């Protein structure tokens, strides 16, 4: 269980994750690319400590909703505190394994929650079986729903010299730098858009599922 790595030291995750200097750029690019609309409901799959919440809340506005899903209760605790601290009443968190999640898990008092988009940042490469997770994610979406993936690969071109650093960052987080989970999406989606940051190390891809 990859998420079990995320049980300890979660209060230090934000400081140690290289967020400011490296990884926020991908988050920003991926969420921009998704083109979320005011009022949308978006699931943040493998939300961790909720580092994407601020950008997602800004994108869906006060009438939209953000549902952070993670298997680690300790990561979710930090995420929930973040939401309360910032007064984001339209954010809720849910402990669930993304490999088995279903629409029933997202329902409130038995009432289904229609999902406009599923977003995942730096989590699918940790999950091991990302195709199975993405197949499940599509069952949560409304027809024509959007998927956005931000994840990592080896840097390319002039940035290749940073490969050892990129590998180290991935190894520390339990991510497989060769997983390339966005390729699942590019093979299945329409209106695919892709951009990269940090010498190609970060790939952001979005598309609408057929
Ligand atoms: C590297 S962190 C990324 C967190 C966050 N998305 C971010 O951008 O900082 C990976 C997260 O995926 C979660 N995770 C790993 N396997 C999972 C699974 N099967 N189901 C749900 N969450 C999982 C971990 O608990 C962890 O919080």
TrEMBL record:
PANTHER family membership: TRANS-ACONITATE 2-METHYLTRANSFERASE, TRANS-ACONITATE 2-METHYLTRANSFERASE-RELATED
An annotated Gene Ontology molecular function: methyltransferase activity
Keywords attached to this entry: Methyltransferase, Transferase
Stretches of the chain forming a coiled coil according to its record: none
SUPFAM superfamilies: S-adenosyl-L-methionine-dependent methyltransferases
One Pfam family recorded for the sequence: Methyltransf_31
GO biological process terms held by the UniProt record: methylation
Highest taxon of the lineage: Bacteria
Protein name in UniProt: Demethylmenaquinone methyltransferase/2-methoxy-6-polyprenyl-1,4-benzoquinol methylase
Domain Methyltransferase: 38-158
């Amino acid at each position: 269980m990859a998420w079990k790595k995320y049980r300890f030291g979660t209060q230090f995750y934000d400081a140690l994750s290289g967020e400011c200097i490296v990884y926020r750029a991908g988050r920003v690019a991926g969420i921009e690319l998704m083109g979320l609309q005011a009022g949308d409901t978006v699931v943040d799959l493998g939300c961790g400590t909720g580092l994407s919440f601020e950008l997602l809340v800004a994108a869906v506005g006060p009438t939209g909703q953000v549902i952070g899903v993670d298997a680690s209760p300790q990561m979710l605790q930090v995420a929930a505190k973040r939401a309360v601290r910032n007064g984001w009443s339209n954010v809720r968190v849910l402990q669930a394994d993304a490999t088995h999640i279903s629409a029933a898990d997202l329902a409130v008092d038995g009432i289904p929650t229609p999902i406009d988009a599923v977003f995942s940042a730096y989590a699918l490469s940790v999950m091991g079986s990302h195709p199975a997770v993405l197949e499940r994610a599509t069952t949560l979406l409304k027809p024509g729903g959007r998927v956005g993936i931000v994840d990592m690969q080896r840097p390319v071109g002039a940035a290749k010299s940073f490969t050892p650093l990129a590998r180290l960052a991935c190894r520390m987080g339990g991510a497989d730098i060769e997983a390339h989970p966005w390729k699942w999406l590019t093979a299945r989606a329409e209106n695919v858009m892709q951009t990269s940051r940090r010498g190609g190390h970060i790939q952001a891809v979005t598309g609408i599922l057929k």
